[in-house]
Design goal:
Blueprint (H helix, E strand, L loop, with lengths): L20 H11 L4 H8 L3 H8 L7 H11 L3 H8 L16 H25 L2 E16 L5 E13 H8 L14
Antiparallel strand pairs: 1-2
């Protein structure tokens, strides 16, 4: 276990919005007193990616399932059947978020979204940052006075809109991006 006693557990009010395996993973994590960083180091992923697996926001590989099963002593077959399917992303919480920390992240995008967009466009041109070919990292920094600061790094592949537009002109591509109502 890491050198702190802080441990993220499952908020039971979320259970109905999460995949069935989430409860088992969180229960095992709590029983073994493991942080997401501890689990990440065992399975070879970063801690944000591991947390995304627990919340059903990412698809697990066979290797992820085997290592999680081994570490958490959860039956591999049950995990494989549920975690290797397609995730139902974005449904874990309400929009706008009501949990204060998640709301602050949402608020950051509300307040700085256009600033981020302007700076990104100046650096990369007209395009979008991928949330699929993506990784995130959370670090803790302390200033000279010992005050703690959160450092969140978002890393996404940049896609130029011209290339996206050309892709969408392919006969089959519009099916990939058509609204659900069609």
């Amino acid at each position: 276990m890491s050198d702190t006693n802080r441990l993220a557990t499952l908020d039971l009010s979320m259970v109905s919005r999460l995949p069935p395996y989430s409860q088992a993973l969180f229960a095992a994590k709590t029983t073994k007193n493991l942080t997401f960083a501890d689990i990440a180091s065992h399975i070879g992923r970063d801690e944000v990616a591991v947390a995304a697996l627990f919340y059903g926001q990412a698809q697990a590989s066979a290797d992820d399932v085997a290592k999680l099963s081994e570490l958490l002593q959860v039956p591999r077959e049950a995990l494989a059947a549920q975690m290797m399917g397609f995730p139902d992303r974005g449904r874990a919480g309400p929009m706008p978020p009501v949990e204060p920390l998640i709301y602050r992240l949402y608020e950051i995008v509300q307040n700085y979204g256009y600033s981020f967009k302007a700076v990104l466009n100046e650096k990369f041109g007209d395009g979008i940052m991928s949330a699929i070919n993506f990784s995130a990292k959370v670090e803790k920094e302390e200033d000279d006075k010992g005050d703690a600061y959160a450092v969140i790094t978002l890393r996404g592949k940049w896609y130029v809109f011209l290339l996206l537009f050309l892709f969408l002109r392919l006969p089959w591509a519009h099916h990939c991006f058509s609204p659900a109502s069609e």
